[in-house]
Amino acid sequence: MIVTNMDRTQCMALLRASRLARLACVKDGRPYLVPVTYAPDGDNLYGFSLLGQKVEWMRGNPQVCVQVDSFEGEREWRSVVAHGRYEELPDLVGWKVERERAWSLLSKEAHWWEPGAFKPVPEPPTHRIFYRIVVEEVSGRHAFPEGTAGGGVPR
After folding, report:
1. What residues does 25 pair with on adjacent strands?
2. Residue 105 and residue 37: Cα distance in Å, rounded?
3. Total structural domains in the chain?
4. Which end is more exposed in the chain, N or C (fewer Cβ atoms within 10 Å of the end residue's Cβ)?
5. For residue range 82-119, what is the model confidence (pLDDT) as tens digits?
6. pTM of the full structure
7. Can you name the residues that pair with 34 across neighbouring β-strands?
């Protein structure tokens, strides 16, 4: 098995090719990790959620981490970790264009609101939140069996 580091271009290519990630946030030194769907656009990852623990924690500490991976056969994989900053796109005058951009990008995929719109029953509906993660730093690894080409871009 050969493991190589991915450069920023390769990392961003995997982020652009994916739609499901794990998002980590921290409050009082305690981590919280959840699956999220997102839509990439440049250095931004747009997301949607109902108000809950994830949003409350990111409001308190906007420094977050997103992890995406890709498995391409039995022994080939890629994994990217993106550190960034949470920015809420509030339903206020002055944010209409940004919210519409988020909705436009997210709605290109079927079931774009999952898992952000699901809450345990019988919780009442909560405020809808659009947000973006501004990617500030990325790192990634690519593993593949010896004797194979490896090193390609995500499919």
Report:
1. 32
2. 12
3. 1
4. C
5. 999 999 998 888 888 888 899 889 988 765 545 554 45
6. 0.83
7. 23
